[in-house]
C-alpha cells in the first residue's frame, strides 16, 4: 500500500554511452559542494551532484539543463524529473551493476540477479500501459514459448485418443493431497491487504470508507496518498504524525489466515512469507523474522530516513501522543516508522530473498490483487514445475503464472477458504492448539 510504483515505459530512457560511466565512482564528491554520500549522477552528462535533502544541486542541475534522468548512489535507483517518478529500464542495467559492484562487491549472478533482470525486462503492468501500447518483445517471446509448451506439436495432428500429453490442470484436491502427503518441502506465501481486513484494519482505497477517502476529507487533500510521500513527510511531518494518532496498531490481532501462515512454519513447510502489509501482525501469528519479507516495511520499528539509524517505535508513539515532531539528533530530519514511503526504495531483503520463490515447490498468493510493482512481479518467478494456489475474491488475470496448468484459483474470503482447507486437510485440531499457544504470551502480559 505504500510501495514505490516505478514506470517501465518512461519516454526519456535513452541508450547510454556506458563507457563514460565506467570511469566514475559512487563515492565521488558533488561538483558544487564537495558532499559525499547522498549524491546523484546525471545520465545525460555524467556530472555528480548532491540530493534535494543536502543542498539540492542535482535538482538545480535539472532545472538548468533539462537533463531528465539521474541515478542515486544512495539507493541505486533511477529518477526521471520529467515524469516525476522512479523508472526501471533494461537500458540502464550495466550502469546499475557497475555502481552496485563498487558499493557491495561484485555480483554473483545467482537466481536472485536473474530474477531482478527479468522484472526489469518484463512489462508486468501491460493492462495499465499508456495509449494501448503492446507488451514488450521479451514478453511476446515468452508468450510464444509458453504456447509451444502448452500444445505439443504431435498432439495437434494426432488421432483422437492419441498424443494427449497436455498436463491436466492443477486442482484443489491435488493441493490438499500434496500437502497431506508431505510432497511440498518449500512453500512461499505472498500476502496483501485482504488478509488483514477481518482484523478490523481499514483498507486504503475504498471510495467512501477507505483510509484515503477519510484522509482526503480530514486534510482537504487532492491526493490523500501524498501523506505517505517522503517529500511531503520532510516538508510537513506533522501531517503524518497526526495521522498516526488515528491508528492504534497494537489493538489489532492476527486473522485465521495470519495464523495459517505461522502454522505452515510450525509444520516446517514455510520457506518465506513476502507481504505487502505494514501492520506487523505476522509476528503475533508465530511467523519469525527470518521467514518474513515486509516488502513495504512495517510498524514494528522506527528509524531516521536519512542516516537509517534505528529508533524506538514506542518512543515514536510518545512523540505522536505529545503532538511533537521527533528529529534525528544527527541529521535533524523527522523520525518515521520503518514503512516504505512513496519515493523510497524497497528493502534489500526483498531482492535478496527472491531466489526463495524460484526454488519453491508451492506458492500461495493470498488477499492481493497484485497491481503494485515490483511486488506483482513475484509470481512470475515461480518455476514451471511449482504449483501455485491463489486465494482471493477475484482472479488475478494479468499474471501468467497464476493462470497456467500448475495453478488453482480458490475464490472467496481468505479466512473462510483457509479454515475449510484446514478441515479438509484434517489439520484443524493441531492448528487450534497452535493458535492457542500463540495467544498465550499476549494474554499473560495483560
From TrEMBL:
PROSITE patterns referenced in this protein's UniProt entry, alphabetically: SIRTUIN, ZF_UBP
Keyword Metal-binding: yes
Chain ranges of the Deacetylase sirtuin-type domain: 165-428
InterPro entries xrefs: DHS-like_NAD/FAD-binding_dom, NAD-dep_sirtuin_deacylases, Sirtuin, Sirtuin_cat_small_dom_sf, Ssirtuin_cat_dom, Znf_RING/FYVE/PHD, Znf_UBP
Residues at which Zn(2+) binds: 304, 307, 328, 331
Listed cofactors: Zn(2+)
A Pfam match: zf-UBP
Comp. bias (Basic and acidic residues): 127-159
Superkingdom of source: Eukaryota
Keyword presence, NAD: yes
Alphabetized GO MF terms: histone deacetylase activity, NAD-dependent; NAD+ binding; zinc ion binding
GO cellular component, as recorded: nucleus
Keywords on record: Metal-binding, NAD, Transferase, Zinc, Zinc-finger
UniProt-annotated catalytic positions: 296 (proton acceptor)
Domain named UBP-type: residues: 8-106
Location of the region described as Disordered in the Swiss-Prot/TrEMBL record: 127-172
Name of this chain's protein: Uncharacterized protein
Organism: Euplotes crassus
Amino acid at each position: 500500500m505504500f510501495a514505490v510504483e516505478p514506470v517501465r515505459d518512461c519516454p526519456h530512457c535513452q541508450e547510454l554511452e556506458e563507457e563514460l560511466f565506467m570511469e566514475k565512482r559512487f563515492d565521488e564528491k558533488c561538483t558544487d559542494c564537495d558532499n559525499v554520500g547522498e549524491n546523484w549522477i546525471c545520465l545525460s552528462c555524467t556530472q555528480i551532484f548532491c540530493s534535494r535533502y543536502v543542498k539540492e544541486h542535482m535538482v538545480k542541475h535539472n532545472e538548468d539543463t533539462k537533463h531528465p534522468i539521474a541515478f542515486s548512489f544512495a539507493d541505486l535507483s533511477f529518477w526521471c524529473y520529467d515524469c516525476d517518478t522512479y523508472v526501471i529500464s533494461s537500458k540502464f542495467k550495466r550502469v546499475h551493476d557497475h555502481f552496485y559492484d563498487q558499493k557491495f562487491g561484485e555480483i554473483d549472478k545467482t537466481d536472485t540477479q536473474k530474477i531482478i533482470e527479468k522484472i526489469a525486462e518484463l512489462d508486468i503492468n501491460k493492462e495499465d500501459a499508456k495509449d494501448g501500447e503492446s507488451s514488450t518483445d521479451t514478453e511476446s517471446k515468452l508468450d510464444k514459448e509458453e504456447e509451444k509448451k502448452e500444445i505439443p506439436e504431435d498432439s495437434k495432428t494426432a488421432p483422437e485418443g492419441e498424443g494427449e500429453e497436455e498436463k491436466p490442470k492443477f486442482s484443489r484436491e491435488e493441493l490438499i493431497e500434496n500437502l497431506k502427503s508431505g510432497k511440498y518441502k518449500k512453500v512461499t506465501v505472498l500476502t496483501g491487504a485482504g488478509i488483514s481486513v477481518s482484523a478490523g484494519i481499514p483498507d486504503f482505497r475504498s471510495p467512501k470508507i477507505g483510509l484515503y477517502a477519510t484522509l482526503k476529507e480530514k486534510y482537504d487533500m487532492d491526493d490523500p496518498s501524498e501523506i505517505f510521500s517522503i517529500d511531503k513527510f520532510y516538508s510537513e511531518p506533522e501531517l503524518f504524525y497526526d495521522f498516526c494518532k488515528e491508528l492504534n496498531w497494537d489493538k489489532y490481532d492476527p486473522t485465521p489466515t495470519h495464523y495459517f501462515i505461522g502454522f505452515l512454519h510450525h509444520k516446517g513447510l514455510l520457506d518465506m512469507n513476502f507481504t505487502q502489509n505494514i501492520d506487523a501482525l505476522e509476528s503475533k501469528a508465530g511467523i519469525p523474522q527470518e521467514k518474513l519479507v515486509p516488502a513495504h516495511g512495517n510498524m514494528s520499528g522506527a528509524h531516521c530516513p536519512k542516516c537509517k539509524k534505528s529508533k524506538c517505535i514506542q518512543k515514536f508513539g510518545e512523540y505522536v501522543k505529545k503532538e511533537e515532531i521527533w528529529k534525528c539528533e544527527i541529521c535533524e530530519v523527522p523520525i518515521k516508522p520503518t514503512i516504505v514511503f512513496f519515493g523510497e526504495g524497497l528493502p534489500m531483503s526483498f531482492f535478496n530473498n527472491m531466489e526463495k520463490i524460484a526454488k519453491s515447490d508451492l506458492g500461495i498468493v493470498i488477499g492481493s490483487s497484485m497491481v503494485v510493482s515490483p511486488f506483482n512481479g513475484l509470481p512470475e518467478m515461480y518455476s514451471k514445475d511449482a504449483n501455485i494456489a491463489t486465494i482471493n475474491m477475484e482472479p488475478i488475470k494479468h499474471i501468467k503464472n497464476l493462470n497456467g496448468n500448475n495453478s488453482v484459483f480458490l475464490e472467496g474470503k481468505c479466512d473462510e477458504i483457509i479454515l475449510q482447507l484446514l478441515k479438509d486437510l484434517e489439520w484443524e485440531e493441531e492448528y487450534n492448539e497452535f493458535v492457542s499457544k500463540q495467544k498465550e504470551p499476549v494474554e499473560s502480559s495483560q
